[in-house]
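Re: the multi-chain job from yesterday

Posting the exact lines I submitted so nobody has to dig through the queue logs.
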Amino acid sequence: MIEIKELHKYFGALHVLKGIDLNVKKGEVLSIIGASGSGKSTLLYCINGLEPIQQGEVKVDGVSVHAKDTDLNKLRTKMGMVFQQWNSFPHLSALENVALAPRIVKGKSKAESREIARAQLEHVGLSDKIDVYPSALSGGQQQRLAIARALAMEPEYMLFDEATSALDPELVGEVLDTMRLLAEEGMTMICVTHEMGFARDVSDRVAYFHQGVMEEIGPPEQIFGKPESAHTAKFLANVR
Amino acid sequence: MNDSIAFFSGFGPKDLWFLTQAAWQTLLISVLSISGGTILGIFFGWILSESKVVGAITVGFILDAFRSVPLIIQLVLFYNLFNVIGLAVSPFWAGVTILGVYTSALVANVARGGIEAVGAPMRRAGRSLGMSYLQTMRYVVWPIGLRAVFPSWVGVALGVLKDSALVSVLGHPELLKVARDLITRTQQPLLVLAVAGAFYFALSFPISRYAAHLERKWQS
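And the result, structure tokens for all chains:
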């Protein structure tokens, strides 16, 4: 379970997150929508400990992410993260991209980590690209490679930071399909997304962020059907 | 008259062997100073990229000095300094040390450029997988960044190989020193210098070919 309490985050004088309270249960799929600059991505970075926070607390399975004595590297292996820019490691083949972290972080043997990598590449539909280098993969394939790379650490949570925003329109579908597959398998997911169709169809709950505040959260029927907040309604009217 | 004929004898096969041995010395000096200087230079480049202010006023300043003062002055100055302070350093090791530090000053800036070229998103990708800072450096940032500046590094290495000729001022019998001695004896400067030049080429050419091969391999 991910628990966020009274979270405040500043970039210098800029107040990016203004007191976020949010719990995500095991097995839940949460989509976060909202305009650019509303703090959605920053929230993911705070959950993964990639950004320090100024006030409040983030707990993952009861462990405080920002506490000084937390082994953040170990905690991060519980959370897979997929970024807008997929950031495949260009000097490694697809298989090596996925096998690297299990080997050096978890200390698995070379053979074992390659086996894990092979299984995860098959999982995301890249079995035929095992020895290919990222430069020869399309954006959609690289993003699926990034998903496989995160899954290879056997995370209990997956954080998606606008995973499809940097893709050409015709490549968005294959990445969303992979994300759907994970949701069906019961993975706990927090997806910052601009894909309203995905948010509506796949999520258990949808949160709308507005200027650093979680304006509204609820089941997709509520958010997309009859939003309680005027801001939510206005945002959705604009993106449709 | 016979004596002087023996003293000024022409270039013979035995001299070719002298030059081969001298080329071996040049290779030794170059390999030691380039590899040592490269490791040191990457370390300095890393410091420069990680701490802009502190790095610039400490490491950056020292490296600037080494880059700006002509190598021949550094060699003579430090070799004599070593002896003045009572360190009995042979011309060979003095040459290797100074050439190595000089190399590190050049490599540091090349390496810094490469390391800085790997942006925050790539580093975050590594950290988000649970890699420590050092693991992210070792397995992600350095391989990507240093490969990107590899062609510049090859340029530095070939330059240092040629600059190793300056170690001749310390009297160590490397290529240029032996060539000059042979010129004095044979009075055939064109021939001797041509042979010495061919040796330098024979040392450099495989390096640049191998470098080109590596670049092609990495691009695939």
